[in-house]
Amino acid sequence: MKNLTETEAYRRARRILAAPDSPLKSLRLKVMLDGKTLVMATPRLKKGYAVVENPPARPSGTIRWIMANAKFQSSPGPVDLVVQGCVAVDRYGWRLGKGGGYGDREISLARSLNPEVKVAVICHSLQVVERLPHEKWDQKVDLICTEKECMKALRKI
Could you write out the three-class secondary structure of 15-34? Predict the structure, then answer.
């Protein structure tokens, strides 16, 4: 997470869409503590998107806290940065999620609302692999952030 928060994409972002993945709990808290608007897809998108603006003095990055303190919207609205988790990601930015397709839907919608949006994935360096298979509906990420570094996804060879 630290490597992502040091990037220009994070510093410039005012509205950040972060997945409800447990490993992103610290990032969601940091977003709020940094005075940015947190947008979180609700689990399985059952309630759309949870939006936290101007959180109280003691926010939490847990899904439970966010669900209890957010306003809900059917759309995330335009965001500046999307942050997802993954099972694996390759150096070209192809991401493998948990298999439900929600991350790709969230990224696709964010890009339709703001074509300039940056997309990052936070993972352990062991989750970065050489190549992953991908389908036409899969969405690439721009930044791959691990505990060691935050790198731009490579373009095609």
Answer: EEEECCCHHHHHHHHHHHHC
Count the neighbouring beta carbons within 10 Å of the beta carbon of residue 97.
20
The per-residue pLDDT for 32 is 97
- Domain contains 75: yes
Nearest residue to 19 via CA among 80, 61, 78, 72? 61
- pLDDT for 1: 63
Q: Is residue 51 part of a domain?
A: yes
Contacts of 133 (CB under 8 A, 6+ apart): 94
Q: Would you say residue 157 lies in a domain?
A: no
Q: What is the DSSP letter of 36?
A: P
Weakly modelled stretches of the chain, pLDDT under 50 = none
How far is the C-alpha of 52 from the C-alpha of 55, rounded, in Å?
6
Cα–Cα distance between 8 and 101 in angstroms, integer?
A: 28
Q: Which domain holds residue 36?
A: 2-152
What is the tally of helices (H) and strands (E) in the chain? 5, 11
Domain count, the chain: 1
**CATH classification of the domain holding 15:** 3.40.50.10420
Angstrom distance (rounded) from CA 138 to CA 1: 24
